[in-house]
């Protein structure tokens, strides 16, 4: 079935160079953006209740820009000066570069996978002696804690922010040919807003194994999956699907 409209369950990109705009132009499809979840900050008082002490750690594990923002916010609220020699372990270069807004960027204290054949876990294994603070949300689905436990690496969980479902009531009478999800929280938000949601001809795209699992647990049909060998990004997965669905007969 031809695709005329796609809903990306994330905020609209701030720049006009988003790869999703290329899809819209290339295949003549309408692409809308709408975050299905929102982030709420956790207060310094709540972080203290978790018995989190920033100075007791030598490194932090960062999986998102939101984690960075909330880490430095909490530190300021706690009136804690983050040590100059604190090390930052980021899951990607893009996240690592975002640190420049908050610290004097030095390669010797910012780490991330620098080649495609190296994973974030390879980076952590090279620094097993650090005392890590793992920055996360209240619904983190990361496998990182399991990895740290398996390799007996010292760490402490720190919930710095929480995710809540967005109000999507204005979409009640709007239908899309494809809805793209990026986390299990997005699936949760869909059914919290629309308990009687029926998939029918709507195609579901999911990024990540945990999101895929959430789709299946919700008894939805998964039509588009990423990342895969052929499609390492959601944009590429959608493009592969559109090439077939929108091919001229």
- How much is the average pLDDT? 92
Tell me the distance between the termini: 12 Å
* CATH architectural group of the largest domain: 3-Layer(aba) Sandwich
The amount of beta strand, in percent, is: 15-25%
Q: Helix coverage percent of residues?
A: 25-40%
The total beta strand count reads 11
| Name of the CATH first level of the largest domain | Alpha Beta
Helical segment count: 9
**Poorly predicted regions:** none
What does this protein look like?
With 249 residues, this protein is of the alpha/beta class. The protein folds into two domains: 5-36 and 166-245, Rossmann fold; 40-163, Rossmann fold (3-Layer(aba) Sandwich), CATH 3.40.50. The protein has nine helices and eleven strands. The chain has helices at 19-27, 44-49, 65-77, 93-98, 120-125, 144-150, 184-193, 209-217, 234-245, and strands at 5-8, 30-33, 37-41, 59-62, 87-90, 110-111, 132-137, 155-165, 178-181, 203-207, 222-226. Helix 1 runs parallel beside helix 9 and helix 7 (184-193) packs parallel to helix 8 (209-217). The chain starts with a strand and ends with a helix. The mean pLDDT is 92.
């Amino acid at each position: 079935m031809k695709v005329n409209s796609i809903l990306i369950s994330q905020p609209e990109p701030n720049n006009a160079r988003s790869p999703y705009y290329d899809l819209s132009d290339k295949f003549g499809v309408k692409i809308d953006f709408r975050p299905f979840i929102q982030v709420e900050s956790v207060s310094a008082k709540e972080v203290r209740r978790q018995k989190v002490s920033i100075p007791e750690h030598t490194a932090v594990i960062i999986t998102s820009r939101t984690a960075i923002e909330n880490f430095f916010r909490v530190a300021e609220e706690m009136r804690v000066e983050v040590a100059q020699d604190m090390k930052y372990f980021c899951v990607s270069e893009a996240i690592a570069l975002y640190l420049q807004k908050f610290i004097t960027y030095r390669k010797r204290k910012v780490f991330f996978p620098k080649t495609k054949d190296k994973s974030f876990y390879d980076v952590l294994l090279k620094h097993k002696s650090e005392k890590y603070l793992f920055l996360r949300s209240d619904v983190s689905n990361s496998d990182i804690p399991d990895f740290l436990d398996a390799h007996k690496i010292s760490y402490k969980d720190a919930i710095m922010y929480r995710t809540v479902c967005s109000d999507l009531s204005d979409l009640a009478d709007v239908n899309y040919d494809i809805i793209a999800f990026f986390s299990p929280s997005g699936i949760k938000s869909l059914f919290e807003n629309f308990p009687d949601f029926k998939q029918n001809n709507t195609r579901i795209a999911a990024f990540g194994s945990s999101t895929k699992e959430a789709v299946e647990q919700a008894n939805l049909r998964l039509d588009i999956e990423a990342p895969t060998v052929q499609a390492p990004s959601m944009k590429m997965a959608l493009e592969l699907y559109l090439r077939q669905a929108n091919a001229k007969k």
